[in-house]
Every structure is written in C-alpha cells, then in structure tokens.
Backbone:
C-alpha cells in the first residue's frame, strides 16, 4: 500500500513528539529524583524523632535490615543510642493490611526489653472523623507506651483486650493493635540476631575510623 506524503509527514511528526516527550520525562526524573529522595528521608527522620527516645547517634545511618519470616523484602531497623553507645530503642515500620479502607502503615519503637516506647501512624486511608482517630487521638497512641507482649491483652476492649476502640470505628484500631502485636512478636524472634548485627557493624565502623 502506497503511503502518501501527508501520511509520512504525520508519522514523522508523531515520532518527533514521542521522542521529545520521552526526553522531557527523562530529564524531569533526573532533576526531581534527588529532591524526592531528600523529602522522603526527611519525612522518615521526622517520624523517627517522634517514636525514639533522645539519642546521640543518627538513626538513619545506624540501621540494619532483616527479612522477616513470610516477607519477601527486608525490613529496616533504626537504632537510638546514648552517650555510652548503648542501644536505647529500635524503630521499624509494620503494616496492618486489614484497615477499613486499606493498609495502615505504623512506625513503632521498642526498648531492648521489648516494651514499646511509642508508635505513630505514617500512612492510612481511613475515613475522616472515624478511623483517622489513629492519628488524631494522641491519648490513644500514648496508650501503647510501655506495653509489651507480656503485660497487655492485645485486642480492643470490645474483643476483651486493653485498647480502646473509636465510636463507630472498631475495625481500624483493631487492625493497628493486631499489627503492633505482630511487630512485637517478630522482634522477640529476631532480637538476638538484630543485636548481633548491630554490635558487629558498629565494631567494624569503629575499626574503620
């Protein structure tokens, strides 16, 4: 089939437009990648400051990764240390897949003995005015403080546990409580390995300096 001159011109024009658009997207990605990465780093740092106790190190660089049982990707654990270089808390993110409107992302920090220092919600899609109490109800978030696997009934009060539910929204707090308990259970399993990694990597860093 013979292609007319006008058709050739249209094909060439479309190709040029496609190339130009590709170059623009590539250029935009190059120039925005660093600012986006920096913003994500700052957001993580801000969240860590809310859950970790006062510390003398940089938790973002003082981190170890372990692939938990059942996961396909490693989880990053961030350490806080005091002036004597002793670990005072460890923070990591857990996910509640069974929120009312989807997954709920939680940053939790525990002391070495497995008791919680603090938790914060870092991402969710729960209903405003109902499930979003997991971010706005500070007293509820604070109720997790000092809780461990052994000194709390890990369920909402409606299910016979220690944690409040919200009026008209039980699914959301139930999902958070369940996820935090799972986080504590995983910590108990990997605690020894995690601290060995922390000590070994810290020693290697000291020798390098």
Residues:
């Amino acid at each position: 089939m013979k292609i007319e001159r006008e058709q050739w011109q249209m094909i060439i024009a479309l190709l040029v437009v496609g190339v130009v658009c590709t170059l623009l997207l590539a250029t935009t990605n190059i120039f925005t990648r660093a600012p986006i990465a920096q913003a994500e780093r700052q957001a993580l740092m801000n969240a860590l400051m809310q859950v970790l106790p006062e510390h003398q190190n940089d938790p973002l660089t003082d981190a170890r990764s372990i692939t938990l049982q059942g996961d396909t990707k490693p989880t990053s654990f961030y350490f806080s240390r005091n002036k004597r270089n002793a670990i005072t808390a460890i923070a990591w993110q857990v996910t509640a897949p069974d929120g009312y409107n989807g997954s709920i992302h939680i940053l939790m920090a525990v002391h070495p003995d497995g008791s919680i220092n603090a938790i914060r919600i870092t991402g969710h899609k729960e209903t405003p005015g109902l499930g979003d109490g997991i971010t706005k109800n500070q007293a509820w978030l604070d109720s997790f403080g000092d809780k461990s696997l052994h000194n709390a009934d890990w369920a909402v009060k409606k299910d016979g546990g220690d944690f409040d539910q919200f009026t008209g929204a039980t699914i959301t707090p139930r999902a958070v409580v369940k996820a935090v308990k799972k986080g504590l259970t995983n910590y108990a399993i990997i605690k020894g390995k995690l601290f060995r990694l922390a000590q070994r990597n810290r020693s290697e860093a000291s020798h390098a300096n």
The chain has two domains: 1-50, 52-208. Strands lie at 63-66, 75-81, 87-99, 102-110, 116-123.
